[in-house]
Every structure is written in structure tokens, then in C-alpha cells.
Amino acid sequence: MKRLIAEREKARLGGGEKRIEAQHKKGKFTARERVDMLLDEGSFEEYDMFVTHRTTDFGLDKEQYLSDGVITGHGTIDGRSVYIFSQDFTVLGGSLSETNALKICKVMDQAMKVGAPLIGINDSGGARIQEGVRSLSGYASIFQRNIMASGVIPQISAIFGPCAGGAVYSPALTDFVVMAEKTSYMFVTGPKVVKTVTGETITDEDLGGATVHSTKSGVTHFVGANETEGILLIKKLLSYLPQNNLEEPPLAVCSDPADRMDEKLNTIIPDKPSIPYDVKDIIHSIADNGEFLEVQRQYARNIVVGFVTFNGISTGIVANQPNFLAGCLDINASRKAARFVRFCDAFNIPIVTLVDVPGFLPGSAQEFEGIISNGAKLIFAYGEATVPKITIILRKAYGGAYIVMSSKQLRGDVNYAWPTAEIAVMGPIGAIEVLYNRDLKAIKNPEERAKFVSDNATEYREKFSNPYEAAKYGYIDDIIEPRNTRFRIIRALQTLSTKKDVNPPKKHSTLPL
Ligand code: HXC
């Protein structure tokens, strides 16, 4: 018994007091402190505390640490089971050894058997250099498990320190990446290698800090101002998710009346079609208690994705954002939304799509980078999804973008439009310029041309810049009063809760990655 207490005490010290102090000085918590912050008090069951590495080269036989640089086990968050691993930077820089990888794989395997989410906290100098290929194969074993677990259990990665080299690919294979400002960074090759190979001088932060990955690369989904905030984000995120792909998401307790109306919504769309507004005002208005957990908030801001509850029902929101790039669909927005839609579909989370989209972003830059195959990802994601899909067209739904955004023929279950909806192949001005190309060429006077366009645009608008034409053909199930949107969504979600839809049997699709 005495030995047990002493050994546990030793293990809890990781790489020793000095290194713990150094960790704190950097504004970072230790691996164990992070586990304690994340899990319900007293719920942590630790595995493999007494594991040590088996390497004798490079003097490592004299450097043994109990737990070998990673804390693993399971516990609960808000009473729900999760599995966890937390890399301990105080032990050989949290580097991944053969035994360290075996510990991680053990909890991954159990998480899969039990059907519980996996949370990985990364803070590591990468492959343990002294172990060479044994360490590399450890990474490969983790990657393989990440892949097998994808779409079966939710996988969340926190990056609370360095995550460099091939090590970045485990988080990248998981569903959500959370970073903390200033103390975490991720890159495939660090500043030193970059300098050697390309001559470029760049800092850790500028190459792979939280700001870069939340705004430019889109690698991270959430950023906390510090680790504490990052941990709170993980807890909040889990509250929307089921334990695994065979379960429904949890039903939240809801005190917000289902039939609560918001008169403000009846006038929220500006009179002029060119004037933007913030679609998040609509999301906050219709969601339970105005709460919205936005995913990738600073990336591809022309589309907004995230989680809300409607009368307690966990729901994914996808919304065009007229406030940014007029809500156009571009490559990044298409990829961002497609990934989100596929996540929701994998985990039985219904999707509500709010549409105000003038089309795909035109231009050679987008064409050269592949807007065709990237836009196709979003069509694919929506068309493949079998969860309940509710679409509300708020204003513009033009061309291909109308089709993409969960239209009826992509198996939209309930498709509503506000009276302000404009559903057409393209906007009025563009349409007139195509339809009356020959007449316009003949008019030389600019004022006369403008009058011609404006007169004919009026006819076009009367015909197409409203939802009635689409409703006439049943592509829109109903035109609804904006103020009543929350209630109509809730009723649709309740009705669709027993929805069954299947895709044909196949090994897997060949979606345009
Ligand atoms: C063994 C390592 C280590 C590693 C750090 N340490 N990285 N030990 N293998 N990969 C040890 C250090 O020797 C030191 O030991 C302690 O951890 C803390 O490291 P410091 O350098 O003092 O800390 P800091 O100044 O904060 O710098 C952190 C760091 C740096 C930026 C992560 O240590 C670093 O650059 N490490 C190497 C990173 C790297 O190139 N990794 C391989 C990437 S390739 P003491 O005893 O002094 O405390 C890769 C392939 C994966 O990972 C492939 C997967 C497919």
C-alpha cells in the first residue's frame, strides 16, 4: 500500500517540479491539470499510470518517468462518459514513444467499444527522436484508429502547446480542433525548416498559431483566449453531440417557449436587395435562449455554421452570411459547410439551412483553385445526408447556389420561404442583360439602356423575385411569416424526428475530395 501511494505520487509529478514550473510560466496547465479541468470532479479513472518506455539508447535508460509522457483514461463530462489522453510536455517534451502510443491506442480502442467520445489534448514535441521508427509507427497506429473511429464516435482534439510534423495529422483526422491563443501552434514543418528550405523567416505564431489556423487555413474550429476557455468550449460542444453514431443527440431542457414569435424578423430583410444584414441576428432570434455555438467563426465568414437547440433538439445550422462577400459561395465556404453537414449527418443531428445566396463567387482565382470540384462537395454533402433537413429561404436563392443549399431535389424534407424570397436562375439585372443582349447592343445612349434594363427588370422581378413561382410547383412547401420561423422549425423537427431515409448499399461514395 505504501509503495502504491509513493508510486502514484511519483507519477503525478511527471517530469518533475522544475518542468511543471516552466510549464506554468509559459501560461500553460499541466497534462493532469487539464484532465481535472475537463472532467467532472472525481470521475477520472486513469489507466497505465505505471507504464514506462523501453528504450535504453541515448541515455534514456536513466531517464524513466511513470506514465511516459501521456495521461490516459476515462471519466465523465456533465455525467456523460468520455475517453481522454493528455500529453505531458514535462516528460521528454510530451514526445510520442512506442509505449506512449500504446497507451493512447488503448483508450481509443475502448472508446470505440463503449461508444463514447474521445478527447485528445496535444502538447508535444512530436515523435520521440530517440526511438526512431518505433515512434513513427506509434503515430501510424493512432492515425489508423482515428480513421476507423471517424463517424462512429465524436473525436475532439485540443492543441495546448506544440503540435508539429506528422503529429498534426491525428488532430486533422478528428472532427474538431480547439486551440488556445498564443500558447498553441501546429505546423507540418517548423520555422527552422522553413528558413532552410525556402529562406522565409517566420515565427511559430505567424506560421501555425491559433490566429492563422482560425482565419487562414481553417484547420481549427474553435479558439479559446486561453486553455480554460478552450476547455469550456469542448464541454459546450459535447452538449450538442450524441455519444456515438447509433445514438440520438441529448435533448436539452428548454425553458424558451416553442411558439415564441419575434416581430423584428418581419422587417429584418432590408428593402433593397443589395443591402446586407447579419444572418446571426436571425439565428439568435430563433434558437433556444438565443444561444449559438458557432464553428469556424473567423474562417470563410460568408457562410455561418454551428450548433443550436430548438425546443431542446440539438440542430446544426448552415446559413449564408450577406454581411460578408454578399453571402456568395466560394471554395472555402463550400468546404467548410460540406464538412459540417457531413458531421451532422454522421451523428444524427438535423440540419436547418438559412438561405440568402446570390450565387457562386465569380472570377479566375476561384475557377483556377477549383470552385467546381469544391462546390460539388457541398452539393454532395447535402444530397447524401439522411438526417432531417429543413430549409428556409430568406431572400436570394439564385442559380446553382439555390440548388446547393438543401433544395427540395437534394432531399430537403421541409422547404419554407419567407415572403422576401427571390428564387431564380440569376438576379434581375444579369438576367436582363442576357435575355435582351441584342436589344441592348442596339441602344447606344447609356440613360436609355439603363431605362430599358430597369423596365424589363421590373417584369422579371414580378415573375421570379418572389417565392410564389417556386411554391406553385411545390419546390417550396409553404411561405411562412418570418416572426413565426422558430415555431415552424420546431414543429418540423418534431415531425421529422422519426424520419427514415437510406442511401443505396455501397462500399463508400467517391465524393469529389
Ligand atoms: C525527444 C524531445 C522532443 C522529441 C522535445 N524533447 N522534443 N525529446 N523527442 N521530439 C525534449 C527536449 O529534449 C527537452 O528535454 C524537453 O523535451 C523540452 O524541450 P525544449 O526544447 O526544452 O522545450 P521548448 O524550448 O519549449 O521547445 C519545444 C519544441 C522543441 C519546439 C517542441 O523541443 C522542438 O523543436 N522539439 C523537436 C520537434 C521535432 O522536430 N519533432 C519531430 C517532428 S517530426 P529536457 O530533458 O531538457 O527537459 C515528427 C514526425 C511524426 O514528429 C510523424 C508522424 C507521421
Number of separate strands: 17
Give the distance, in angstroms, between the N- and C-terminal Cα atoms.
56 Å
Radius of gyration in whole Å, from Cα? 26 Å
Bound molecules: hexanoyl-coenzyme A
Q: How would you describe the overall organization of this protein?
A:
With 513 residues, this protein is an alpha/beta fold. It has 20 helices and 17 strands. The strands form 3 sheets. Strands 10, 11, 12, 13, 14, 15, 16 and 17 form an 8-stranded mixed β-sheet that branches. Helix 4 (98-114) packs parallel to helix 5 and helix 16 (428-435) crosses helix 18 (446-464). The longest helix is centred in the last third of the chain and has 19 residues, at 446-464. It starts with a helix and ends in a 17-residue tail after the last helix. The model has no long low-confidence stretch (mean pLDDT 95). The structure holds hexanoyl-coenzyme A.
Task: Put the structure in a nutshell.
With 513 residues, this protein is an alpha/beta fold. The chain is built from 20 helices and 17 strands.
Helices and strands, with pairings:
Blueprint: H1 2-12, H2 17-25, H3 31-38, E1 45-47, E2 70-77, E3 80-87, H4 98-114, E4 118-122, H5 133-149, E5 155-159, E6 162-164, H6 169-173, E7 176-180, E8 185-187, H7 191-198, H8 204-208, H9 210-215, E9 222-224, H10 227-239, H11 279-286, E10 293-295, E11 303-310, E12 313-320, H12 331-346, E13 351-357, H13 364-369, H14 371-384, E14 389-398, H15 399-404, E15 414-417, E16 422-424, H16 428-435, H17 437-442, H18 446-464, H19 468-472, E17 478-479, H20 485-496
Parallel strand pairs: 3-4, 4-5, 5-7, 6-8, 7-9, 12-13, 13-14, 14-15, 14-16, 15-17
Antiparallel strand pairs: 1-2, 2-3, 10-11, 11-12
Helix pairs in contact: 4-5, 12-14, 16-18
Bound molecules: hexanoyl-coenzyme A.
Hexanoyl-coenzyme A is lined by residues 19, 92-93, 95, 125-129, 136, 139, 162, 164-167.
